[in-house]
Amino acid sequence: KTKKTISEHTNSVGNSKKVSQDIIPVHFTSSKDEEPADLRYYWAVIRHRKWVVLIVSVLIFLPTLYKVLTEKIIFGTSTQILLKEDGGRGLGMAIQLGLTESQSSLDTLSAISKTTPFLEKVSQKLNQKLKVNIPPSYLSGIITVTPKHETNILEVTTTFEDPKNVIEIANTFATAFIEYNLDLSQKEINQAIETTELQIKENKKGLEKIEDEVQKFLRKEGAASPNQTINMKIGQLANIENTSTGYQMQIKGIESEIVSIKNKLEIESPTLVIETQINKPLHDQLVQLEMELATTKTRRTSNHPEIIAIQKNIDSIKNLIQQRLEEGVKVDTLGRNPVRDNLLTRLASLEAEKASVDAK
Questions:
Q1: Cα-flanking dihedrals φ and ψ of residue 271, to 5°?
Q2: Tens of pLDDT along 211-242?
Q3: Where are the domains of the chain?
């Protein structure tokens, strides 16, 4: 339109003069909602308030750095202890711990494993092996015992900061626990044997006394006239004497078998070595740290201290794996000898049978 106006003006004056006119460009202006941000204004604000921005950044960064540097890796291991279920075992201790008689001995032994006297024994063993004093209260927090009633197994889980010591703690706890269980079983068996032997002695004295009275009666009644009633009583007494003799022979046979089983028990070892594979937490820890590193890289640069700290933890775990601190590591624990358990069961059965014959 401007060019057309200039052309008309030139033609009107007969092209006598050359008219020149500057064309003023019209700048594009956007709407109010689409006004562009002026970065220079924000940069000026940041430069003016640089110390405030720096202090806020440091306050946000320091807790994260402290957490990364002070966070410790926790290692875990677990082992299983197989126990023979015995409904009457440990009832006295169960009553002291507040358990009912209907509860399993697994619950009783699991409660005993968390008591201070037992944990003190474990602490003493660890002090001798590792030369480190671990108090019972700390052991109670890092050791978890879970009874599995359907399989008659106690699951022992241990967590600790040192991968070598966590294995030693689990192994020592399992060994001390099995030794305590065997000691408890042996004490109950010895007490039952002593009680049965006392009953046998008392019953023998009673049988000898009855036999003397029968002999006296037979000698006394045999000198009298042969009356039918007296003969009947003599026959009854003879039957009683024969029955008593049969019971005495039966008792001797049971006693002979008891002696044989006791001799076999002296030969059989009360424990067997059970090899248990521990879990491998290092690989799981490595995967978790690598995922955390990938997530952090989306919002941090590669030179950021948080990225560097996570990378150091990953390298540390890789070094532990290369040193094979947990690959192929196995824990040898003690288990019950099934042959000896069968002998103990047979011994208890014979003692019960012997007591029954003594009563007859």
A1: -130, 160
A2: 888 888 877 765 555 566 777 788 888 888 88
A3: 74-280+326-359
